[in-house]
Design goal:
single chain, about 325 residues, alpha/beta, Rossmann fold, globular, hydrolase activity, AB_hydrolase_fold
């Protein structure tokens, strides 16, 4: 057992005795995540450009570049901004177990990712279960990645590569989308991918972390069953269990796991499988930390260093 960090211990103490997500209706769970993001995460600081996009899936652009803000003011009659220099775009898929989460919960994090990397970020608002069960989110993720890769005029700049990233369920989407674009390339290449505490195996494999952290560490075994019941994934489909797929030819990856997390060992296994396939990968673990920490950067200040390390590793691949 890893030693629990002091700030994590405080949060777990605060949450002790709270009803689990498995006791809630979907609407309440969604509202609860939105309500908790404000007090738990760092405040949302908009980038110079923030714009909703009209692609195949709702999304929001966060562009940290001042030049983009200046040129976005020069709008053509067709409504498209003047095009600036080409560069990579980060396509980010939010976490929430495929049932909760969205732009409102992840906008502060997405804007900070944009500033930290110095790159525009497209935060994808994919469909959620149970209204849209598996594989709707995967279809949306791939469709949006291909649309961004095509360099639509409304972005306001040319695109010369993609970076796919996500946290939790979004990490799974980033991996599955990278696999899809490896097999059927988009208009520009995927330069790298980042998966933060991803679930990579929906089979009943006996990963030790599933039992070790089934109770008392925020994301519980009962909670995972609640998400799966609404999502209805196919464990044998490689989009649900990408660690079981062929990984040769994948873009360079950064995998960041949480040490006190039932999906920890799935992230470890995925990083190991990338190494075995000859894919450049940086594996990092936030020891002593629980799942969902990207939405708790205010109450878990220690994780900011873990995230900085992950994004530093990603920058090295770019």
């Amino acid at each position: 057992m890893q030693e629990i960090r002091d700030d994590v211990r405080v949060v777990l103490g605060y949450l002790e005795g709270s009803p689990g997500i498995e006791t809630q209706e979907v609407a309440a769970a969604r509202a609860g995540l939105i309500a908790s993001a404000g007090p738990a995460d760092l405040p949302y600081v908009p980038t110079p450009v923030v714009r909703d996009l009209n692609g195949p899936v709702p999304a929001r652009l966060y562009d940290p570049r001042e030049v983009a803000a200046a040129e976005a003011a020069e709008v053509t009659a067709a409504g498209a901004a003047e095009v600036t220099a080409a560069g990579p775009v980060v396509v980010w898929f939010h976490g929430g177990g495929f049932v909760t989460g969205g732009i409102e919960t992840h906008q502060a994090f997405a804007a900070d990712v944009a500033r930290g990397l110095g790159l525009p970020v497209v935060l994808v608002d994919y469909r959620l279960a149970p209204e849209a069960p598996f594989p709707a989110a995967h279809d949306d993720a791939q469709a949006m990645a291909r649309w961004v890769a095509s360099g639509p005029a409304e972005l306001g700049f040319e695109v010369d590569g993609l970076v796919l990233g996500g946290d939790s369920a979004g990490g799974t989407l980033a991996i599955a989308t990278a696999m899809a674009l490896r097999d059927e390339p988009a208009a520009v290449p995927v330069l790298a991918h980042l998966a933060i505490y991803p679930a990579t195996d929906e089979t009943d494999t006996a990963y030790p972390s599933r039992a070790e952290f089934a109770e008392g560490y925020l994301l519980t075994g009962a909670g995972r069953a609640w998400y799966r019941r609404h999502l209805r994934p196919d464990p044998e489909d490689l989009r649900s269990s990408p660690v079981r797929g062929e990984l040769a030819g994948m873009p360079p990856g950064v995998v960041l796991t949480a040490g006190l997390d039932p999906v920890r060992d799935e992230g470890r296994a995925y990083a190991q499988a990338l190494i075995g396939a000859g894919v450049p990968v940086t594996f990092l673990e936030a020891a002593g930390v629980i799942h969902a920490f990207v939405l708790m950067r205010k109450v878990l200040p220690s994780v900011r260093e873990d995230l900085d390390r992950a994004f530093g590793a990603l920058r090295a691949y770019l």
